[in-house]
Structure formats: C-alpha cells, structure tokens
Amino acid sequence: MSIRIGILGYGNLGRGVESAIKQSEDMELVAVFTRRDPSSLKINTESAKVLSTSELDHMENDIDVLVICGGSATDLPEMTPKYAAKYNVIDSFDTHAKIPEHFKNVDDAAKNAGKIGIISCGWDPGMFSLNRLYAMSILPEGKDYTFWGKGVSQGHSDAVRRIDGVKDCRQYTIPVEASVEKVRSGSNPELTTRDKHVRECFVVAEDGADKAAIENAIKTMPNYFADYDTTVHFITEEEMARDHSGLPHGGSVIYTGKTGDNNKNTHVIEYKLTLDSNPEFTGSVLIAYSRAAYRMNKEGMKGAKTVFDIAPAYLSPLSGDEIRAHYL
Amino acid sequence: MSIRIGILGYGNLGRGVESAIKQSEDMELVAVFTRRDPSSLKINTESAKVLSTSELDHMENDIDVLVICGGSATDLPEMTPKYAAKYNVIDSFDTHAKIPEHFKNVDDAAKNAGKIGIISCGWDPGMFSLNRLYAMSILPEGKDYTFWGKGVSQGHSDAVRRIDGVKDCRQYTIPVEASVEKVRSGSNPELTTRDKHVRECFVVAEDGADKAAIENAIKTMPNYFADYDTTVHFITEEEMARDHSGLPHGGSVIYTGKTGDNNKNTHVIEYKLTLDSNPEFTGSVLIAYSRAAYRMNKEGMKGAKTVFDIAPAYLSPLSGDEIRAHYL
After folding, report:
1. Whole-prediction pTM
2. Longest C-alpha distance within chain B, in Å?
3. Which residues fall within 8 angstroms of residue A317, CB to CB, at 6 or more apart?
C-alpha cells in the first residue's frame, strides 16, 4: 500500500513536493489543501484532489503524512503544531532563533496525538545541518564554514522589489571563490560577511525611475546589502523573463579538522550542492523524510524530530538487506 | 562518567583510534589488547594498560565499547562476532561481498548478548556509504559515482612489494580530474575503470634488480594494475622515507539526479574528503560511532548496526537541545 501524502500550500515548494511524489513509487498524493478557493487551483496530479484546508479537520484516515509548505514567519509556527495534533507532519521551518520554541510546540502536540512531527527539513536547515553535525562529531577539533549560492535569494529579491521605482528584481547570492579556496586549503581563515559572499541584483525599473537612486538604495540597505559588495544591473522585463526565470541555488558546508600529535594532520570535509531548482530539491528532501515519518510512526515512535534524530535507513524505500548490499 | 574504550589491535588504525579518544572529553582509553607480547608494546596513553587479548575473557565490567582494529580478510570475520557476545563492538569490515554474512554473524551474537555491534564503519564503507544513501533517497532518479584519492592504497603497495627485486613501494590512487569534472557537470558520463583513476608507484628496487622487468610486472599485474594507466618511479630509500611517509587519502562521492517536468532540472550533490591521515580520520569516525554504540545500548537497543541504522544525534556528545541550537 502506498504512503498517502497531503500537501498544505501550493506555492513553489508545494509544487516541488508534488514533483518529488511522482518519482516515488511507494507514495501517492491524495490532495493539495489550500486557503484559496480550491476551484481556482490547477495542480499537476490528475488523481489528486484540491481541497480547502478546512477539510483537514476530518481526514485523519486518508492521509499518512501532511507536508506543510508555508512560510516560517507566520504560517508554520501556527500550522505545524496545529496539524501535528492529528497527522504525521513535516515542515521546513527556517527561523533559526525560534527553532527551540517551534520544536517544543510540535513535540507537545505530536506526542499527545501519537504522531511524528519533523521540523526544519530541507537543505539548510536540513542536509547542511547534518553535514555540520557529522563533521563536528567526527573531528571535534575543527571549524565549519557555510557558503550559499550561486542562487536566488527570495528574501533579498523581495526587499529590492519594495524600493520605489522597482518593478521586479532577482537577487543572486554568490560565494567569493577565493574565500572558498582558502577554506578548502585547511588554513582556517577568519572571514567577514563581506569576504564570504557578494550579491548581484537584476532589476527592472519602472519607466522614468531614477536608476542611480535605486542603485544607491539597494547598496546601502541595512542587513540585506550594506555589509556586502553588491552589483546592480538594470535589465528589461523581456530579459528578466528570458534569463532569470529559474530558482537555482546551492552552496557548500566545509569543515576543517585536526588530528594527531600536536594536531599535525588536517582533514577537509566538503559537502556541496549545485541545484537547478531550489524548491524541487527541497521538496525531494521533504518527501524522503516524509517516508521516514511514516515508517517511524508505524514503529510506534512519536514527537518532534529533526534530521538529527532520524536514522538514514528510514529515508530509503529499500530494505536493510538491500541498502547494505548496494550502498554500504 | 566517561565511556570506557578498549582497542583490540595496535597497528595504524589502532593508533588512529587512540588519537581520537584523546580529543573526546567524554571518553577514556582503558586498555589496548594485543596478540603480541604486551610488554613489547609501547602506547601513547599513559593511563591505559597494554593487555593480552586473553584478558578480554573477563573484562565485561571494565569496557563499554571494544574497537576492533583487525584486517577484514581473516581477523574481523572471527573477532567481531566473538567479542559481540560480550561487548558493544565496532569494526571497519570492508570486504563488500561478505557484508551480509558478517552482519548476520554479528547480529546473532550481539542480540543474544544484549549488545550493539557496529560493522563496516569508517569513510568507505562509512561516510561515503551514508552520502550514497542520502542522495539516492532524496533523488531517486539519479546516478552515483565514487572517486578515491589522491591517496595511498595499502593493498596495491603490498602487491608491488611482493614482486621480485622490490624492496619497498608506495602506491597512490589518483582520480582522473577530467572525469571528475564531467561528473560534476551533471552529464552522467559512462566511465570505464581506466577513465576514473590512474595509479602511481614509487618503488625502491634492490641493488642490481632489473628495473624494466619490475616496471613491466607492475603494469601488467591483473586486477591491481592492468586495467589502469600506471606510472612507475624508481626512488632511493632516503627519498621514500623523506617524501612518502604519510598515509593521506580521500576522494569524493558525486551524485547527479533529475527532477521536474521531463526531468528538466539537474542537481549535483558532492561529498569530498581530503585527509592528511587515513588511519587517524578512520579512527575518528570509529570513535564517534563508538559513542553511538554506547548510547544506543544504554537505551536498550541491541544487534548489528551499520551507519545507515544510526541517527546522527547519537554521534555528538552534545544534547539534543544543544545540537538543534548550534548545528541545525
């Protein structure tokens, strides 16, 4: 029998999750749940329904895992604990400072309901976190570096769009290759914010807008751009549609550690992602961990979990014998 | 209270494990066990004993985890099940075809004794296996490539040493960078054995030996060298001692997977190790997983395990709250 998945929220991430389910023979999409008018939504899975979120009040027997694709600012802190009281759930909550509180809320709800609630799953937090933990556990005398990009930052793109005279923007975060190389060499450099990443903005300005003022507003924007070397390019709407429609991303976690007499030996561990589609990759991670949520719950486990708490074997549809034979 | 470790076997790997214990504040080395005369062995930990393996018959109350540092050909198939009947154990068994049988033997012994037996732990099998499994679980439509090196292969070095007229040899396995780049590009190339790695031998010949004959014997040796492009350099004993005393190794697991409509999006996941000391890194992995063995057994788990079966949180000495706060 298939693992029956529900998707709550159908933006880029929801569509990425839907795409991942199609690649998973042991899973089926039951329904997409939306706060919009369900009749207004066209999804890519013929066999699945589009339903109003209110239907989630009574579908406990139809859904094995609910993948919650909402925003971390306001959606997930409310939704994930709420639905963990009825369903195995998973989210990609990424507001770092609030993870302890979110974990506690989901843990209470899920334990009470006898369900699993996986939080903060994706690639960062997610696969990058795993690689930081594995590396520091193996080499306790070491240091980790995370570089992001080259990739589109939705938050930074939105910040530029709010500037007067800006019609559209795509912002790329780009690691400074010379700094990445320094880290790879094992030299443990001290790097400032400016040393690690540059930012590149492609902006469509409104007719007659003051481009110099826009460029200045971007480059001096606190938190988002002021601490970085930023490049601004003005382009046409046609160029935006033609050259910047994708959502690539990626980055690397590099850990350097020392061992041996007088710490004479250096080891470098690098985990690197190069992703054509951030939401499709994140959706694929969520679906692999949804399988884990289902299987762990079947074994009687409950409560909030993160990628740290989940044995890798739970992610694979193959048996223990098969993974030992083919992947060990 | 510290986790009390015993090391069985004191070659390069045993010393690497000893070195890793010194970096772990929650662990102490109780004793090194040897089949040699214990009085002949000088170890690097003053507080630890050197004992004969026969003492393991009665030290169940003194050792929490026994790290078995023996060879995969004959030592581990016998030792690991034997000691799993009394101790939590861990080994780095790497004879791939015999893993199912070894797993079964250790599982039977460990379950019967209520102990944990972790097998095939290190970096390959070990961390590389984990990365293959995570990647294929996230992106089911993909392909994995493993490259080894640049690093010293002990097996190949030994094979050359057995040739007539050879006094010493160090063999380096080196990935073909052009092939690594092809894989990184996401083009999913078909690669032969010769495409993936080259082999480089540094040989000290005996006085008056026929160097042309040695070089020919190396390059035509079946399994070890015949399928590779191999370079042979003759050097002096002084050069060997000066330039080739280390045991560096490493390599990378590169996985390329597709997602989206018509699989239009490509993702590349790369995990890369660059290790100054293969035995010290492997020893560090064994010690992190020894911590897991101890903690899982404390929670009542038993039987054979591999890296696939172990939730990452068990590897860290930090609490769940701490790792969520600092590494997620």
Report:
1. 0.96
2. 68
3. A24, A25, A26, A291, B137, B140
